[in-house]
Design brief:
single chain; about 220 residues; alpha+beta; Pseudouridine synthase; 2 domains; nine-stranded mixed sheet; 13 strands; about 35% strand; elongated
Length: about 220
């Protein structure tokens, strides 16, 4: 492939930029020339799931894909918080209180709709030309203003304390790590996102995605 889109199932432990670099290398080797490859919205390193990569001439249309709605499956761990909102940060115990399933359902329902959300300090957003996570890792104050996002739907898939599994359909720009923290805050027990998987972007589904191994990428 030299032009078009490629659906990739990103593995955990790899950055989105890492996926792009590996796919670019393989496609360029196959074509015998340098192929342009770009992603259309990052997934956190700990997360897995659907990445839409733009290839060749299609890279000029990347922003069109970035603005699309997305579907995620996530596990939220209650009773603890993380400095990064995910398993990669420093985790602190907050509470032993075990909310009821009904309590959780009510909180999730309150979060549906147009809401204001504060993106996490450890994010790829740029502040004065620098990635927020670079500044946060340096111990600098990162003040990212709230912005409006839309939670179209949240389904409580399973609850086995301390873990809450959800499936949610959200607008572009939504951070599930922040959503997990909002759930913990609303319940008064603290929370962070333990696992995250993106299963759809608009009409593109993870079922149609290829793994890196299927593309012959093993490192």
């Amino acid at each position: 492939m030299t032009d078009g889109i490629l659906l990739i199932d990103k593995p955990s432990g790899m950055t989105s930029f890492g996926v792009v670099a590996r796919v670019r290398r393989v496609l360029s080797q196959q074509a015998g020339k340098k192929i342009k490859v770009g992603h259309t919205g990052t997934l956190d390193p700990f997360a897995t799931g659907l990445l839409i990569l733009c290839i060749g001439k299609e890279t000029k249309n990347a922003m069109q894909y970035t603005k699309l709605d997305k579907v995620y499956e996530a596990t939220i761990r209650l009773g603890q918080t993380s400095t990064t909102g995910d398993p990669e940060g420093d985790v602190t115990k907050v509470s032993d209180v075990q909310p009821s399933r009904d309590d959780i359902e009510k909180v999730l329902q309150r979060l549906i709709g147009d809401i204001m959300q504060k993106p996490p300090a450890f994010s790829a957003l740029k502040i004065n030309g620098q990635r927020a996570y670079h500044l946060a890792r340096q111990g600098k104050d990162v003040d990212i203003p709230e912005r409006q996002i839309t939670i179209h739907d949240i389904e409580l898939v399973e609850y086995a304390y301390p873990d809450v599994r959800i499936r949610t359909h959200v607008s572009s720009g939504t951070y599930i790590r922040s959503l997990a923290e909002d759930v913990g805050r609303e319940l008064g027990v603290g929370a962070y996102c333990l696992q995250l998987r993106r299963t759809a972007i608009a009409d593109w589904s993870i079922e149609k995605a290829q793994t890196l191994a299927e593309l012959g990428i093993t490192d």
